[in-house]
Each structure stands twice: as C-alpha cells, then as structure tokens.
Amino acid sequence: VSPGSCSFGPFTPGSNERNSCTVDVTAGAPGSYRISYTITPIGGAIDDNCCCPGATEPPHEGSCTADFGAGALTCVVNPQALNLCPGDPVTFEVTVQNVGTCPVDGANLDATWSGCGGCAPVSQAIPHLPAGGTWSTMVTCNDTSNCGAGQTLTVNASVNSAGISSTSCNASVGFGNPDLICSLGARSAGICPGDDAVFDLVINNNGSCDSGTINPTITVTHNGAPSSLVASSDCSWPTSIPAGGSQRCTLTIPGSQL
User: Fold this and answer.
1) So what's the pLDDT on residue 70?
2) Could you read off the pLDDT of 142-199 as tens digits, one per residue?
3) What does the pLDDT look like over 56-70, one tens digit per residue?
C-alpha cells in the first residue's frame, strides 16, 4: 500500500467546523490493512481539545482499518450423457462461479483427460466475472473408439487466476457394450424324407450398446460330421442389432438335399 496525503480547510478562527478529505488506497492483495494518519497544521497549532475519529495520543493522530476483499472461484463439471458406447463423443459442461466479494479478470480454464479415449487438452480464457457471477462452457472428447465396456473417461478441470487460489473439479463417464445371446431350435423334432428341415434362429442384444455389424457363420453337420448341406436364411446379413433389440431368422435346409 502506498502512502497518500490530502489537504482540507481553511477553518475560520473561533468556529466549530467539520471538514474532511479522501485518500485513495490501492491494496496489492486482499486482507485487513491498518491505515495511520497524522494531521499537520500549516502556520498554526492544533488545540489539544481537537478530536479525530479513532484518535490516539496526541489527539491529532489516529488510525483506521480497511478490509479489502477478493474474488474466489469454484467449478463444477457435469456430463451431458451417461449411457455411452465406444465411439460416442463425450461432452461435459464446466461451470465456474465467483463466490468472492470482488470481480475476477484474467482467469483461465484448463481441462485434461484421463482414462480411455484419445482427447486433446482444452484451454479457454474466462471472461470478466463479477462477484456472484457464473460462466459455463462445454468441453468435448470426440475420440472414444478405444473405450471398451467397463472403462471410464474423466475430465479434470483447473481454474487459475493471478492473485487468488486456483480451484479444480472433475467428473467421469463409463462405457457399456453389446451383449449378444442367440438361440437355435428346430421347428419339428422329426421330419420325413424329402421334407425341408426348418430352424428358428433368434439373436438378442441384451446390452446397453448397438451390436455393430454382425455376420453369423452358419454351418451344417450331419450325424455329427461336417456336411456340404447348405442352409438358406431369410435374414439379410450383415446387420446390426440395437440395444434391447433382436433379430429373428428362419434357416431352411431343402428336402432335396437330404
């Protein structure tokens, strides 16, 4: 804090007058500052009966305390989606709030990633934040192709500004997977020579993600041995089965082959 000075008066001799002046003080850092003052007469003397606010001995000296506040930043991260599959882009909302008593200028947000995914760091300047003000932005990771089932992706956000304490926050999301279960059954336990052999194939996706492209391999055995018989299908392969969906097919071995 740099010292300052000011002048006031003149006073009329024998009068009871009140006058004041202002000294601007710039604090280099938040905290409590005690400012002392001395009244120096020019061409005269100060009556010992003079009373100054906060005066100590002698009466024309005194001090007062000024408290300087500061900005204080907090941050919160919220994922925009929770049910994610490998390859999905992941977006988080970062919200920064100034919970201090003074505005904040020149703050910066830095976000890094951990866990799966191949995401680039993010750096953004935060605009002027008045006391009580908030600012939000979205940060996105577009490359999650290597995130498998049960893996997580975490964003770590750090907010920094000169002269005040930094703050950090983070959040994570997990990834699901497809879960394919198939069943195959003959429509009839026994057939006659020349009849078609018909089977029903059902593939269920009980997982939380699409199956991606599937192309089943169908082979036929006869009496436990590999066979040259060919089963035709009324399904179109390859295909994809959505989460919670199913694919039903009819497989037929023509009686002419049997």
Assistant:
1) 84
2) 999 889 888 999 999 999 998 888 999 999 999 988 899 999 999 888 888 889 999 9
3) 444 455 555 666 678
Q: pTM for the full model?
A: 0.63
**Residue whose C-alpha is closest to residue 177's, from 98, 91, 108, 116:** 116
Query: In the sheet that 31-38 helps form, which strands lie side by side, from edge to edge?
Result: 31-38, 61-68, 55-56
Per DSSP, the residues of 169-230 read EEEEEEB----EEEEEEES-S---TTPPEEEEEEEEE-SSS---EE------EETTEE----
> Which residues, in sequence order, are CB contacts of 157 under 8 Å at separation 6+?
75, 77, 94, 109, 110, 111, 139, 168, 169, 170
Which residue intervals of the chain are DSSP H helices?
none
Burial class (CB in 10 A: 0-12, 13-18, 19+), 205: buried
Comparing C-alpha atoms, which of 185, 233, 178, 228 is closest to residue 208? 178
State the pLDDT at residue 75.
Answer: 97
Beta strand 90-98 with 167-174 is unpaired
Give CA–CA dist 211/247, Å, rounded.
11
- Sheet of strand 152-160, all strands in order from the earlier edge strand to the far edge: 122-125, 108-115, 152-160, 167-174
